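Anyone? Bumping this.
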Amino acid sequence: MSVSMPSFLNCISDDDFAHYEVDDYQKCVAKWCSGCGDFGALNATKRLLAKEQLQPENTVFVSGIGCSSRFPHYVNSYGFHGIHGRALPIATGVKLTRPELDVFVVMGDGDCCSIGTAHWIHAIRYNMDMTVLLLDNNIYGLTKKQTSPTTPIGFSTNTMPRGSYLPPLNPLTATLGVSNASFVAQTADWIPAHMYATLQAAYEHKGFSFVRILQRCPKFTPDVFTDAVKNPDNNELLVHENGIDAPGLEKLFKNRIIHDPKDLDGGRHYAEVENRVRLGLFYRNGELPCYEDTREVVSVTAAEKIQKINTEFDRYAV
Ligand code: SF4
């Protein structure tokens, strides 16, 4: 586990940075395999940070463990490279104590949908205002090709050499099934314009914005998205005037479904697809309460904290 601070803060005063360019948000060279979809997600995220001119000292990236969880090392902001499956409780604590910060969470499919599942479910329910990226490559990449909850049935891995024998978990329908889910979208690393527009919409949403990014892993799952990458006709875009606005994709991606993201049942229905890739905004409800807005964080001094702890200890004295 490690905590990082923006390198801007080491030696430069606030006045030196009236404006941030995209590259100002890059902390160091990212070390992923050549062709890894994580690069595209990082680029789209940096574009968003520059577009919104987010202050590095007021921005936090929290991750768990996995290839994509190296994100906080590469973004020039505060960062918390946490514990496997525990990115969301860490982010929840950050947001609850510092609600004015912009909080981003980056998880992989093994991280979020296996060991972190209980935290994922309850974080959806808490609906705290944060942008959550699930980089889903259908495999545990960092630990060299183990079956994850989203690995396709029949896919051979080091832990299931005869092929995964369970149907994969669908992170979209799982999220949409939790009460208080407020923003659920899916995009793909091979369509940068759509990914950027999706992150923009997620950031603008007040609440828990869950974005599943279909992420290519040329090392261990090189073919799982090949049909969609090579043939745009194998991608379907959910479109609506209230949905994801990604101009310029009309000519290439002709398969379109008009879906109003206010329609939860429709979103659940369209999230069920199995044999093709469906991208867009499945559901958005900006009216649901955010947990941090329902809680009053009372600041207390260190002496008051000690007094309260001693009072509690006294209750159990024998
Ligand atoms: Fe990316 Fe896969 Fe390499 Fe990990 S193993 S860095 S997910 S290509």
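Late reply, but here is one note on the structure posted above: The CA atoms of residues 177 and 279 lie 18 Å apart.
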